[in-house]
Amino acid sequence: MPPANYGVKLMSMGLLLDGDQPVIWRGPMIVKTIQQFFSAVEWGELDFLLIDLPPGTGDAQLTLCQTVPLDGGVIVTTPQEASLGVVRKGISMFQKLNVPILGIVENMSYFTAPGGERLEIFGHGGGRDEAARQNVPFLGEVPLFTEIREGGDKGIPIVISGKENPAGQCFVKIAEALRKQLS
Hints:
The protein is of the alpha/beta class. It has helices spanning 27-39, 59-67, 81-96, 126-134, 146-154, 158-161, 166-182; strands spanning 4-5, 8-9, 73-77, 101-112, 118-119, 138-144. It contains seven helices and six strands; from the N terminus they run E-E-H-H-E-H-E-E-H-E-H-H-H. The strands form two sheets. Strands 3, 4, 5 and 6 form a four-stranded mixed beta sheet that branches. It has a two-stranded antiparallel ribbon with strand order 1-2.
């Protein structure tokens, strides 16, 4: 049974390990675990099943695409070219496996300093530009907000603690855009 909070069910390797124990696995073990997360976890009735994958085009991504029918992938990138290079490979892999790209999200888009100055620490607009280049929707920006980190540390998602503030709204807008696509 997956633990649930705020109406969201969750399963993670982190829940199955002791403390700081690392997961040092090769392909076959990753493949088996992904398959078990679909077959052995009692998900019950779901509106959506979101799967967070690490960057890249390895065993986890390939197994997922071959194990379950996917409505699509959401690509999350940071604005700088180093991240976008990995993103392009991921998009190409999904396209070769006939998985539609639902859109791109730009994470760590900018930071607003206490004095109000906007700082684009990792650059800005790389996600939007790549979405245009790939001809896929740009779903939105997630700036560096202290409230997001604080909520994560406390176990209270920003869409629960501050749904109406700018930090919460960036996630709400992305979720609404995805819901429209998948309806």
